[in-house]
Request: fold
Amino acid sequence: MSSIDSSSSPFASGDPTEISEAVIPKGTLWQMMESGIELGGERLNPILVKEARQALKSKQFVITFTLLLLAGWVWSMLGVALLSPGVYYAPGGRFMLSGYFIILTIPVLVIVPFSAFRSLAAEREDGTFELLSITALSSRQIVTGKLGSAMLQMLVYYSALAPCIAFTYLLRGIDIVTIVFLLFWTLVASVLLSSIGLVVATVSRARHWQVLLSVLLLVGLCFVTFFWTLSFVSLIVDAQATAFDDTDFWLAMAAIMTFCISHAVMFVLIAAAQISFASDNRSTKLRVMLLVQQTLWIGWMAFFWIKFEEEEILYILVSVACLYWAFAGACLMGEAAILSPRVKRSLPQSFLGRMCFTWFNPGSGTGYTFTVANLLTLLLVTIVAGLTAELEGFAAARGGFDWVIFVTLAVAYVIVYLGVARLVTLLLRQLGRVTMLLTFLVTLFLCVIGVALPLFFQAWLEGYSRMSYSIVQMSNWCWTLEEAADGNLLTFSLVPIIIYCSAVVVFFLNLLFAIYEVEQVRLATPERVLQDEREMHPSTDEKRGGSSPWDDLKAT
Amino acid sequence: MGGESRVKSQESRVKSLKSEMPEQPVIDMRRLHRFFGSTRAVNDISFEVMKGEVFGYIGPNGAGKTTSMRILATLDIPTYGDALVDGFSVINDPDRVRRRLGFMPDYFGTYADVNCREYLDFFARAYGLRGNERRRALAHVMGFTKLDGLAEKPIRGLSKGMKQRLCLGRSMIHDPSVLILDEPAAGLDPRARIELRQMIRELADNGKTILVSSHILTELAEMCDRVGIIERGELLAVGTVAEIQRGQITHCQIKARVLENVAAVATWLENRGDVESIRVDGQLIRFSHVGESDAQAALLREMILAEFAIAEFGIEQRSLEDVFMHVTRGVVQ
Reply:
């Protein structure tokens, strides 16, 4: 490669004008456009180029495309025949669009995401993934290339049905906003499903698992497509169902959109992390994304809370966030606390940097602390928002301070259950290898046992029909939170105190076992790597060299 | 003898390489271990390969060749130890290793619905080659592997030999300084093997460092400067064929042609302590002798002094196969 030793490379140009001629477009407009397209093509993701070449020649694409065109043509004939003679004077756009929409959703919501799944899974099955992974492409580029290819297929299918959809607008009865709204959200759903398909493809390399996963994914996609089509066709048929002139509707759409984008990014990052090299840092980017999602969630919920002044929003904010962090925390705690020397080269060095960014490093202890930190931030924001409302005399004031007990208890429960699960997995690690799945199952088991055990115990003591909430149900997070939300927990004031204390104890105990992870320090980059870096990027070295009067001092 | 001259030329090539090359090896395996459960696929392997050297990696099936090559190609990580390519660790700097290394695995790894040019073009793009540089790389590789005439042919229509060439082309598309070739000659016809051998030799002459594994030992003996013999994950011997022979085999086969009194010569030899396994075939006597060259010269002198009519006396050169059979035990784990 030229970056290694361009002078000795057999591919190096002997003529210095050769590249510049290709770069500087000249001649007619057509030639300039061609040069521009060629230059753009050079910058495209290689996977996207390869997949596009492959897809256009593949039987699957040709068959799907032909069937789509045929179905569109058949529905055009059939629909017009069914609408006749009213088609000449009555609006028939909605009726025709519902048919085209059903035809479009099958390739876009089933075939494209499944193709994305198969595309990555087949690379791993056929061994071509190994050849890809040793190229200069990063794992993220591989995944985004696959996703880009899926999006390209979506656009081709959209283009195929575009004349038919334009035809429905000409038939009247349907406005352009509704059409764009439907097509846009279907596109978003397809991108999201394709990114999920890519994650599923990275779950296992074993053939039997791949078969099982492909069946599950296909069933899931059909299920989603069915409900998606059902709900959107009803929206097409019922002209009054959409509220395009309502600002709140568009705000809700914007909120959903941000979550769709953040989740698609998250899935891409997960898939990329799954296929990355063993010594890579697979966790930090995901943690940053978790933080972004938390910020988005808090931001949108705070906005809606201020706008609508509904106390329920605080409950939704905390409940959803607690479930989210319970799931994310259980996964993060499954990470091994081993940092490769490669990862250690980029660890923060300053005290402030270590204090803020250590929790983004891979490891179960940092994962738990990261989760707790996010939960406490959420709690802080919720309490500040609630108390402000109390002082201002709106929203939460109507329900008193029940919400405070609810939100603090919800957060404390997550801290306790995750913390205990981590302590259990630390013990299990002494016996053997603990995977992320095992950590997740241990957490789930503890959560279920925490609910089931006191229920059975009290039912055995008192009988099921006479059961009422008691201190025995302390570990039963479901019932306790329900009682807290209803404001009935004031009679059992000991319960929240014990749970808060347990959360504090469990958290500090876990922090104690996270000391090893916190103690990790930056390793110096080997001289050979620095030398290579200087050869690859000589400008950075020039920039550094001699520009600062402190450089010599540093060197000495 | 042809074999003898080949061994000599290998040794002189290795010597000249050692004198020319810088001190740092291009491939440096450092106490490499790879365990799969209780199976020790690679167990404490260390060796070095210098710039421009063709290193043959031989061993029975399941010996650990592919595992160690996969580690070197940054497809797997060792349980313990490390491997360096041009001074970069395969564990800590895989991206830098990948830029310098081309890997040809023991499978084709081709895509359906693409032709030879598209296949190579894709990998050239994947290695970051752009514009004219990529076009030149494609032309160079297709010319080198003699695939020019098949550029537009779909890969699925290629013969095994052509696919092997295509895969070799893919592994060298980014002009790596190191090539790892896992069983490149497997399943090829004799002509394709000879052509492949010539290509590998040419690449080495152009300064590429090549690590090649094969079961066809005669092939390796022809093209490799040095070999490493591996069995049950352990490296049993490293060096030129002659070096290994000297180090591992204390007996050498001697062939003598006696014009008369063959039985008397055989009896005379039987009474010596340094001679074993005497076989008489007409005028020819073959036996195994324990000792170095000076001991063999002393033996010949004694035979002449004993007034035996010795018309021919020489060491039967051992092939790489003989060395391999002697060094390995055929045990699999």
Observations:
- Chain B touches chain A through 48 residues (CB under 8 Å).
- The domain at 2-240 of chain B is CATH 3.40.50.300 (Rossmann fold).
- The CA atoms of residues 218 and 320 of chain B lie 7 Å apart.
- The longest strand of chain B covers residues 39-49.
